[in-house]
Structure formats: C-alpha cells, structure tokens
Amino acid sequence: MNEIxxxxxxxxxxxxxxxxxxxxxxxTDLSAHxxxxxxxxxxxxxxxxxxxxxxxxxxxxxRFRASASALELPDPDPDLWNRALDTVIAEVVAADPSITEFxxxxxxxxxxxxxxxxxxxxxxAFPVPVDDSIQRVRAQxxxxxxxxxxxxxxLGSKAPWLLIGAKTLSYAVNQAAxxxxxxxxxxxxxxxxxxxxxxxxxxxxxxxRRGDHLLTPDPAAGLLSGTxxxxxxDHAAGLGLTAEYADLSIADVxxxxxxxxxxxxxxxxxxxxxxxxxxxxxxxxxxKLQTLxxxx
Length: 296
Ligand code: PLP
Known about the structure:
This protein has eight helices and 15 strands. With about 300 residues, it is an alpha+beta fold. The protein has two domains: about 5-130, 2-Layer Sandwich (D-amino Acid Aminotransferase, Chain A, domain 1), CATH 3.30.470; about 135-295, Alpha-Beta Barrel (D-amino Acid Aminotransferase, Chain A, domain 2), CATH 3.20.10. Strands 7, 8, 9, 10, 11, 12, 13, 14 and 15 form a nine-stranded mixed β-sheet that branches. It is globular. It starts with a strand and ends with a helix. Pyridoxal-5'-phosphate binds near residues 202, 204 and 264.
C-alpha cells in the first residue's frame, strides 16, 4: 500500500499531495487533543484498474455531511471531497495494478486557531489496507462480550450534545471497549444501552436473521446509522428477506438464526458467540452478504 496522503483545505478549497509518513498536523489542531472532527472509511473494490467501485460512496458522503452538521462544521463540498477520494484511489491503483481491494479514510477536523481569529477546518484522505485481521474475521467470524454503553436507549434526541449518531474522531471509548473485550477473551464488544437494548459494536452494526427477517437496532436507539447495514437492507428483498429496525435484547441475539457484525471494511463477519454462548451460524448468508456488500 503506497504512502499517499491528500491534504484538503475546505476554505480555499484546494487539495495538496503529501507524504503519509511525514508530520502534517500541528499539535494545536483540535482533532489532535479534543477529537473534534469527523471521518468516514470507505471500501474500494478494484475489478481492473479502469473498473473501480467505491462501496456506498453516496451513503458515506451523506453521513459525512450529517456529522458535519451535528458538529456545526462547514457543509463539505462533494466535488472537493470526491476529488480527494479519486486522487487517493488513482494513486493506489497506479502503484499496484494487481490490488483488488483497500479502504480510504477521509476526515475533517475543526482545525486550529487562525492567526487572525476563528478556526480553519482542515481535511485529509489516505488509503488503509484490507489486512489479515479483516480477512480473518470475514472468514472465521467473531466472538463478543456485551458491555453497558452507559446511557438509556433513545437518549440522543433529548441530548444532542452527546453527538450520538455522528461519526466523530472521538473514538477513545470505542477503543477502550475493544481492549476490554479482548482482555475478557472475546474479539469484540457489543454495546447495550443501560436499559438493556442492544446497540452496536465499537466499529460496526449488528444485524440478525430471524426466519426470513433481517433485524437491526434502530439508529435512533443510540448508535451510528451504518452504510453497510443500509446497503444490506436496500438489497434484502433480492435475498428473499425482509428487513426491519427493532429493539433487540441480548436474548434476541442469542436465539437468532444468524448474527453478523457489519461495517465497511470487514463487510459481514458472523457473530458466533456472545458472552460465552454460541449463536447459530449461517455460512451461506455470510457469503451472500459479503458478495452483496463488495458489489457496492
Ligand atoms: N457503528 C460504529 C460506532 C462505527 O464506527 C461503524 C463503522 O465505522 C459502524 C457502526 C458501521 O458503519 P459503516 O457500515 O458505515 O462502516
């Protein structure tokens, strides 16, 4: 994976090609010490160097705009951000024409103090590899432990300052939950609201199958609305399934006919075990979901 970084100046607007390995961000940037910014990670599928698919490109940008609005950041210009994405993709594919998939992460920080006052948002975009850990969870699935998210379901509309549902750069809690899960012998955490409603993983949504129905927690319950989950729901009928939002309990997940952690880079990983209890595994649907998601 080559070391390209594209710096994005939303105010000019302008793009600048830079070196990913070199220092770029002043420590005074509010993303660096407050996590004050937003980001997206998209999966890119390469059929041939001329046939490239950015999975859920529009869904990601729509959410990026919604996150910007929630944080009162300037509305991102689609032309500028699409150009940044395309620049990274073109460079990665040119450097390695045999590459079949990779990710691109793009972010916008509130920036730092401008010399004359006010803040100057800054953005960046760079490639991320589909590494062995992603391939492993796609192939083998995962185990999880349920963890209390610390708030009741449906709190977000009453407490917009919590930014529940925005994809911000403040991921320290999500990272800590992941470490906590690993210390307890599981691969992942499963966040559950304080009043017992299943929410999401630290970097993924959960989808279960009950008979012919796919079910996932309602984003309004207090989680990030996933582009992958929405892609699956938009195509569920083609799999002969209906798709609905529902309040799910841990018992619902344990009694499901299949459960998956879904997110842009991992696509769909079977959730095989929760809190030490086995969950039914549907290998056929895992393969179908992964194929569907990669097709974008
Ligand atoms: N929930 C959280 C907290 C996430 O960080 C992510 C992924 O980034 C998701 C859900 C899944 O979202 P997506 O499918 O858009 O990758």
